[in-house]
Amino acid sequence: MRLDSFAAYEAAYAESVNNPEKFWGDIAKTFHWKQPFTKVCEWDFTTPDVKWFSDGVLNITENILDRHLAENGNRTAILWEPNDPADERQSFTYRELHGEVCRVANGLKAQGIGKGDRVVLYMPMVPELLFAVLACARIGAIHSVVFAGFSAQALADRIQDAGAVAVLTADEVRRGAKRIPLKSVVDDALHQCDSVRTVWMFPSTGASVDWTAGRDVRWADAIKGMATHCPAEAMAAEDPLFILYTSGSTGKPKGVVHSHGGYMVYTTYSFVNVFQYDANAGDVFWCTADIGWITGHSYLSYGPLLAGATQVMFEGVPTYPDVDRFWAACAHHGVTHFYTAPTAIRALMAHGDEPVQRHDLSRLKVLGTVGEPINDEAWHWYHRVVGREQCPVVDTFWQTETGGIMLSGLGGLSPMKPGHAGLPLPGIQPVLLTADGEEITETGVEGHLCFKHPWPSIIRTTYGDHERCRQTYFAAHPGHYFTGDGAKRDADGMIRVIGRVDDVINVSGHRFGTAEIEEAINQANNVVESAVVGFPHEIKGQGICAFVVGTDAIDAAVAEEASESVVSAIGRVARPDRILVVPGLPKTRSGKIMRRILRKIAEGRSSELGDVSTLLNPEVVPQLVAAFEG
Ligand code: WT7
What we know:
Layout: H1 6-18, H2 20-28, E1 41-44, E2 49-52, E3 57-58, H3 60-72, E4 76-81, E5 90-93, H4 94-110, E6 118-122, H5 127-139, E7 142-145, H6 152-162, E8 166-170, E9 172-175, E10 178-181, H7 183-190, E11 198-202, E12 216-218, H8 219-223, E13 235-236, E14 240-246, E15 254-259, H9 260-275, E16 284-287, H10 294-306, E17 310-314, H11 325-333, E18 337-340, H12 342-349, H13 354-357, E19 366-370, H14 376-386, E20 393-396, E21 430-433, E22 447-451, E23 461-462, H15 466-474, E24 481-489, E25 495-500, E26 504-507, E27 510-513, H16 514-522, E28 527-537, E29 541-550, H17 555-569, E30 578-582, H18 595-602, H19 620-629
Parallel strand pairs: 4-17, 6-7, 6-8, 8-11, 11-12, 16-17, 16-18, 18-19, 19-20, 29-30
Antiparallel strand pairs: 1-2, 3-13, 4-5, 9-10, 14-15, 15-23, 21-22, 22-24, 24-25, 26-27, 28-29
Helix pairs in contact: 1-2, 3-4, 4-5, 6-7, 9-10, 12-14, 16-17, 18-19
């Protein structure tokens, strides 16, 4: 499965385009199927309707746990690095992981949870979260992990949309020196959610929590006496594996659905190839993402474990107890493959080279980045200081909806160019289209990044609303999956992803829709209306700037209420970086907000506004500029 030269990549790529069925069929056959598939791919991008290996029956966890037991049961699967380095580290072999997952699976079954039920996980990055993810998959329950930084309202929205029957949580989450309550957030959220019958509570910090008898169960009690064996539920390849909510340009976050078979095949294939990971060479992989995001699904919970990898799972943050935490942990665990986000690289780069050089990073072989475009300076620092100019940097472009990496170098096999995700993986057929759908063949011209053939881990639907899936991804460019990103191709065929062309802001690699933040702000007292735009931010990539029109309350109060309203509707992760209280928003004569003007102002480029005289209210423009500069 692992390609070992650039020529092998080129040959695989050609085969994957000329004969996708043969290409993916052969790869899929290397997995364990309870019942082999005879069909490889059926697809129609108009409905859309995509199926991979549809008559195959499998369980993804059998391919993670049972498959590795015989030969590699004693290999370490997880090296857990706690938030506080003074706390006890934990590690689990594949055999131990199998036992832990089965106990949780049996515990879930004992509470009547089974195939097709939705289970929300709202937890810190403790091993129990990973056990719970895999336990759901084991019994065919559909997990939906909600990042433990989202608010009660955001959690309730997701629980309701998914119709979850259970929520698994902890007392608190530790993030560096901070402790943030989780159980009480769940309690708040559940006032609005009738579907939830059971709440499991893992004591992560030992904080005291409120208790609802008959609903709440202590983790230890839930798994007490449970067997360390649990038969893996037989799943059709297209049965949903999980729902993960992500933001778009309109409305509430939507539940992206991935299915068992295709997701298994693609996360494994992309993992071993992009990272050139070799389990037999003693490689140690570390993806720093939280399981609450797709990266922590595909390249922590699934891909590496499917490949039998040894990996680090980290509970904490890059700057605690000191800014050398990543490098200290890399040295301690002998990490060979390190995968993080540009925002973390930029934040750590600001502390100079010395914290990196304090540690022996000589085992590192491959460095990866994900989540947003990486600027040249950060790329070079990562390559030079962290990688000692010895490690290829793979800039991996993908999305929650793509399930796995789409564009990237393959370890050291491929050419690399700072700021360019590069070439497509085998099986991935990118095209750049103009807004009118014309294919762009010239180099250096920006177009809409689309894919014209399905790959095994493509989004299947948006939960409960298939039409929304069609509208969002398949309607703009008929016959294509549209990413929402703009990109350019250079003379070597390398692709540079520039950023979103829709109303989505990418803050530290996390997506937020401007509409969803505006809706939150507009709920605040003393707010009349608002408009939200992104602006370049030195560390976060993009920051959130909100222009808020208040009632006659004092500006500081309006700003404070708007900010708190975002924190309560979405979570701390979406708190605006700047809130400008303004007397009005620039509008066209038909009443449309001119975001272009707001973006320029927020970027500090108000000298480039051009002619604004056709606005309904041109007089607000200097007031907006003054608010920005004030
Ligand atoms: C959006 C997807 C899937 C990983 C985490 C983010 C941006 C992602 C890159 C990259 C430039 C990137 C895109 C994409 N993005 N990776 N290597 N270079 N941009 O997942 O929350 O689904 O966001 O992140 O804009 O559409 P996500």
